Amino acid sequence: MASTSKGNTSPAVLLLADGTVFYGRSCGAAGTATGEVCFNTSLEGYFEVMTDPSYAGQIVTMTYPQIGNYGIDLADVQSAFPGDGSRPANAPAMRAMVVRDMCPTPSNWRSATSVPAYLQKLGIVAIEGVDTRALVQHLRDNGAQMGIVSTEEFDLDELASRLAAAPQLVGENLVKTVSCPEPHPFTTADLPAAHDFALASPAGEGVANPAVHRVVAYDCGVKRGILEGLVRAGCEFVVVPWNTPAAEVLAMNPDGVFLSNGPGDPDAVPETYTQVQQLIGRVPVFGICLGHQMISLAAGAQIEKLKFGHRGGNQPVMNLLTRRVEITAQNHGFGLVFPSLGALVPELSGGVAEHPTDGDLRFWVERGIAPVVENERFGRIRLTHVNLNDGTAEGIQLLNAPCFSVQYHPEASPGPTDAHYLFTAFARLMAGEPDYLSIDIAADRLAGWNFATEEN
Ligand SMILES: NC(=O)CC[C@H](N)C(=O)O
């Protein structure tokens, strides 16, 4: 085992379900953890990744080789979890972390603690010294799979049997483990201190526009960055638990409903998407990531498990309405099977009557068409966004109801800010503007929706 200048020689092991094994050193809490092994390619923002509740049930591998060098500022935390008996407020939901090289001695004026100290305090297992390039190539070639990380058990047969007995990610409802237990507000008062996020806004106050839209947000594990982005776009929230009945939400008479991101298999949370079925058409609805999957499932569509998912900060997406390419932050392992939404409407799909058979939606990108299908439940639905790396569906818009959704993360947190215009789009949808989604990104920025941090 390689020695380390950090003086930490406590061993750790990562075993994958297919028997592949990686040895390294412990760089978090002592213990053993199981979960789906996934990887994130962001070059920065490891703390936001660690605290994104959508990683519940997963072991997160960071491909960027050095993690922890700028420490942790708790103002960057992404979990909005209020805390309960099992987990403290805002704690990470990921099961474990895998890195090449962990820095125990951060240097940054914002930093309050180091990543290893934080992980130890919260009881999260982590392993460093792993050849993360080899691990990621293995996952890329063989697909996502379960794994087990341990700092205390090194018998591979024993680890394999514990892994075999662990709950699988597919089929498990992880949303209920990260959603808030009670409704609570989220307003401008909940924004982080101005020194952390110097904002330019049309209000010119450096904070946010005044709240003009009252929104109910389904919390399936919502990221703070999303709530903050929407507050800055003029929303104030009542955040409600994942399984709140639609009737209760409608009784609050909101201007819009937001469906959050969240962990795990979307098919395992019918309690949420059956409520969404009753909301669409009655109130403007916007969904992000799991929220997009909830709208898709509410429409009766099929969701597929991607081979290894999209997690990182440089995923190119085309908005088919504007033909602008956005570089986006993503974190998902499941995706909408677009043809399962319904048959194409040829007169609104460039005369094309059959879905492309290879499943590659770059077919529409190449033709400059945003195709429309006829959905049995909600009427016409348009494909608005396509991932240019693999041609998967990443945004839809209902044409007979005020509702749209994207599979990726406009709040970034971490990542590029190209897709921030989608927060403006939701505000425009609630204001009744028909072309709410056809926003010129550059013009939107010039109008003042610049969420850049001081560092930019
Ligand atoms: N970030 C998310 O909301 C993730 C959605 C879902 N759990 C997936 O992996 O696809």
TrEMBL record:
Residues noted as binding L-glutamine in the record, renumbered to the chain: S54, G262, G264, L290, Q293, N331, G333, F334
UniProt keywords, alphabetically: Amino-acid biosynthesis, Arginine biosynthesis, ATP-binding, Glutamine amidotransferase, Ligase, Nucleotide-binding, Pyrimidine biosynthesis
GO molecular function, one term: carbamoyl-phosphate synthase (glutamine-hydrolyzing) activity
Enzyme class, first EC level, given as a word: ligase
PROSITE patterns from the UniProt entry: GATASE_TYPE_1 (PS51273)
GO terms of biological process kind: 'de novo' pyrimidine nucleobase biosynthetic process; 'de novo' UMP biosynthetic process; glutamine metabolic process; L-arginine biosynthetic process
Pathway involvement of the protein, from the record: Amino-acid biosynthesis; L-arginine biosynthesis; carbamoyl phosphate from bicarbonate: step 1/1; Pyrimidine metabolism; UMP biosynthesis via de novo pathway; (S)-dihydroorotate from bicarbonate: step 1/3
Coiled-coil residue windows: none
Carbamoyl-phosphate synthase small subunit N-terminal domain residues: 10-150
Entry's EC annotation: 6.3.5.5
Catalysed reactions, as listed in the record: hydrogencarbonate + L-glutamine + 2 ATP + H2O = carbamoyl phosphate + L-glutamate + 2 ADP + phosphate + 2 H(+); L-glutamine + H2O = L-glutamate + NH4(+)
Matching InterPro entries: Anth_synth/Amidotransfase, CarbamoylP_synth_ssu, CarbamoylP_synth_ssu_N, CarbP_synth_ssu_N_sf, Class_I_gatase-like, CPSase_GATase1, GATASE
Active-site residue numbers: C289, H409, E411
Region annotated CPSase, chain positions: 1-210
Subunit structure: Composed of two chains; the small (or glutamine) chain promotes the hydrolysis of glutamine to ammonia, which is used by the large (or ammonia) chain to synthesize carbamoyl phosphate. Tetramer of heterodimers (alpha,beta)4.
Family designation: Belongs to the CarA family.
HAMAP family: CPSase_S_chain (MF_01209)
Function, as annotated: Small subunit of the glutamine-dependent carbamoyl phosphate synthetase (CPSase). CPSase catalyzes the formation of carbamoyl phosphate from the ammonia moiety of glutamine, carbonate, and phosphate donated by ATP, constituting the first step of 2 biosynthetic pathways, one leading to arginine and/or urea and the other to pyrimidine nucleotides. The small subunit (glutamine amidotransferase) binds and cleaves glutamine to supply the large subunit with the substrate ammonia.
Protein name: Carbamoyl phosphate synthase small chain
Record organism: Collinsella intestinalis
